[in-house]
C-alpha cells in the first residue's frame, strides 16, 4: 500500500524545494563567505571587529527582507487564490508551480529566520568580551557562518524574484491561447 504524500508541512516544503535547489542556492554564499574569510586572513584584519560589523549589517537588513518577503508572498497568494490562477491550478504543471512557489517562499523565510536568530545570539556573545587563548579559531568559523547566512538570505531572493516573474507570466497563458 502506497502512503499518500501530504501537501502540508516541512516534508512538503523540502520535497518541493528539493536538494537540487538547496545545493544551487548554496554555491554563491559558500564562495563569498570563503573568499571573505581568506581575504580577512591574508590582510590580517581584526576579525572580531569585522564579525561585529557583519552581524550589525545582518541584524539591520534581514528583518526588513523578511517583511518584504512576507509582503511579496501575500501578493502572490492573492494571485493564487484569484481567478487568474484558476486555469493554472487545473493542470499538473500548474499545481507543481504553486507548490514550488510556496516552498520557495517558505525556504526563504526559514533561512532568514535562522539568520536573524543566529545573528542575535552571535552579537550577544561577541559583545560579552569573553577572552579565549586562540580567538581566531572561533572568530573565523563564526564569521564564515554569519557571512554565509547573510549571503544565503540575500541570494535566495533571486529565486523568489524568478518565481514572482513566472507567476506574473501565467496571467498571459489564457490570453495566448485565445489569440492563436
Could you walk me through the main structural features you see in this protein, from its secondary elements to its overall organization?
By secondary structure, the protein is mostly helical. It is 83% helix and 0% strand. It is built from 6 helices and no strands. The chain has helices at 9-42, 47-81, 86-89, 92-126, 136-170, 173-179. Helix 1 packs across helix 5 (136-170) and helix 2 runs parallel beside helix 5 (136-170). The protein is elongated, with a radius of gyration of 20 Å. The termini are far apart. The relative contact order is 0.17. The model is unreliable at 176-180 (pLDDT under 50).
The secondary-structure class comes to mainly alpha
The mean pLDDT is 84
Rounded to the nearest angstrom, the distance between the terminal CA atoms is 45 Å
Main sheet makeup: none
Principal-axis shape: elongated
Strand content: under 5%
The number of helices is 6
Low-confidence stretches: 176-180
Q: Helix content range of the residues, please?
A: over 70%
How many runs of DSSP E, i.e. beta strands? 0
Amino acid at each position: 500500500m502506497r502512503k499518500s504524500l501530504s501537501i502540508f508541512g516541512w516534508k512538503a516544503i523540502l520535497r518541493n524545494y528539493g536538494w537540487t535547489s538547496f545545493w544551487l542556492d548554496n554555491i554563491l554564499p559558500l564562495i563569498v563567505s570563503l573568499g571573505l574569510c581568506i581575504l580577512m586572513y591574508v590582510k590580517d584584519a581584526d576579525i572580531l571587529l569585522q564579525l561585529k560589523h557583519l552581524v550589525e549589517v545582518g541584524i539591520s537588513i534581514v528583518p526588513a527582507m523578511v517583511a518584504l518577503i512576507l509582503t511579496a508572498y501575500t501578493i502572490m497568494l492573492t494571485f493564487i487564490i484569484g481567478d487568474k490562477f484558476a486555469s493554472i491550478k487545473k493542470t499538473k504543471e500548474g499545481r507543481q508551480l504553486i507548490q514550488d512557489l510556496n516552498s520557495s517562499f517558505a525556504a526563504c523565510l526559514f533561512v532568514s529566520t535562522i539568520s536573524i536568530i543566529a545573528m542575535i545570539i552571535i552579537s550577544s556573545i561577541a559583545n560579552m568580551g569573553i577572552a579565549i587563548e586562540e580567538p581566531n579559531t572561533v572568530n573565523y568559523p563564526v564569521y564564515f557562518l554569519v557571512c554565509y547566512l547573510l549571503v544565503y538570505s540575500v541570494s535566495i531572493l533571486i529565486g523568489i524574484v524568478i518565481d514572482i516573474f513566472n507567476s506574473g507570466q501565467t496571467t498571459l497563458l489564457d490570453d495566448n491561447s485565445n489569440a492563436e
